[in-house]
Automatic annotation (TrEMBL):
GO MF entry, a single one: mannosyl-3-phosphoglycerate synthase activity
GO biological process: mannosylglycerate biosynthetic process
SUPFAM superfamilies attached to this UniProt entry: Nucleotide-diphospho-sugar transferases
One Gene Ontology cellular component: cytoplasm
Name of the molecule in the record: Mannosyl-3-phosphoglycerate synthase
Matching Pfam families: Osmo_MPGsynth
Organism: Spirilliplanes yamanashiensis
Taxonomic superkingdom: Bacteria
NCBIfam families in alphabetical order: osmo_MPGsynth
Amino acid sequence: MRLADSFRSERFGAVRIHELQRVIELDSGALPDTGASGQSSGSRVVSANAIRAIESEMVVVVPCMNETRSVIEGVLSGIPHDCLIVLVSNSDRRPVDRFEIEVQTVEQFCRLTGRPAITVHQKDPGVAAAFKAAGLPELIGDDGLVRNGKGEAMLIGMALAALSGRSYVGYVDADNYVPGAVHEYCKAYAAGLHLAGSPYSMVRISWHSKPKLRDGRLFFSRRGRSSEVTNAFLNRAVAEYSGFGTEVIATGNAGEHALSLELGLRLRLAGGFAVEPYEYIDLFEQFGGVLESAHPDVVASSVPVLQIETRNPHFHDNKGDEHVQGMRMQALNVLYHSPVTLPAVRAAILEFMVAQGALEPGQEPPRERVYPPVGSLAFDLLYDALDAEATSFRRIGWAPAAPVPARWPGLGSAIPVSPAPAREPVAAAD
Ligand SMILES: Nc1nc2c(ncn2[C@@H]2O[C@H](COP(=O)(O)OP(=O)(O)O)[C@@H](O)[C@H]2O)c(=O)[nH]1
Ligand SMILES: [Mg+2]
């Protein structure tokens, strides 16, 4: 894969956000790697071997809620062979058990391709019991089951990725209509993670266009409705520290993204659709140099965020205006309540939300749920309870390294169980 070079980046403490890099060639041939710094010719090649090396260490999590079987099949077909597939479903089990249909689809795919996969259902009482036993009772709602939400599904996926012993986790939505797009996202994850050159790295996708029908014609729009708002406010939050306006963040809502587990297991994930924008905010909170960090070793290192613009059109299920509005507000809710967000940004968020009719004047935005880091879990207890109690936990040609260690092997020390205390900013980030 050949990517355009990223010439500029914006720093927020240890977090280095690289400007958007285009995919120039999906397949760059048998050329050797030119990913190393100092070999810049406007583009960088990541060799097929380097991509494969990452893929064989990557878990791809597919959050899925009531998507059609043929679309799911297409998504599976696009995930590179060496990645381990984890399907986390919140699909209806009555009147028709849609989860069973999904499991059959995954099983059949794995049989034909000779590859492993894991499936799990978010509302399986055994899954709730396992997360409780492993030390994350916050995930459980009043009904005694894991809460609904995409963030919650991603958290389960990350925990299973850690159980697998692999080093990276990537996310691909189950409602992607174009298998070639899924394939490109995964290749871009691997290329980006290879180029990032840090144990604590993240790659986020910005698709080039999203086709829509307008007056009977296909129109390829550049940005989603929700992304524009989320990105504008995230950029404003960064600019307020540096004193310079910026448009560096183009992937605030990126559902398609991947990260090293070294980083992922330290992050606090938010619930629902706040999960993606909150990843940026938590990076700023934990590694931005503004608040005291529980991980001074990471702050002393570097946390690169690569943003890659892919070529395939992003074609996914249209879930309507209300859904988009809801997502946009969840992003603003988490930004508003973050201790790193400066007062001018908070005021702008309030003003925007009132103008949108999402808030009454004088009201505060609601708080979103934020979970402790997945790295705080006792993985041996998690596995034992899933194994014993979770009937939806299907291991298709996959078994963990025995015995499962309590802590993810890549983490030097245990991750603190409780989130780092929220503190007021003490110093400006650079
Ligand atoms: N497991 C699980 N998946 C979910 C949940 N909510 C949404 N999803 C899936 O997450 C992906 C993204 O959700 P979607 O509603 O399409 O949001 P958008 O694409 O960001 O507008 C889709 O594959 C959904 O099926 C949930 O509560 N649990
Ligand atoms: Mg979607």
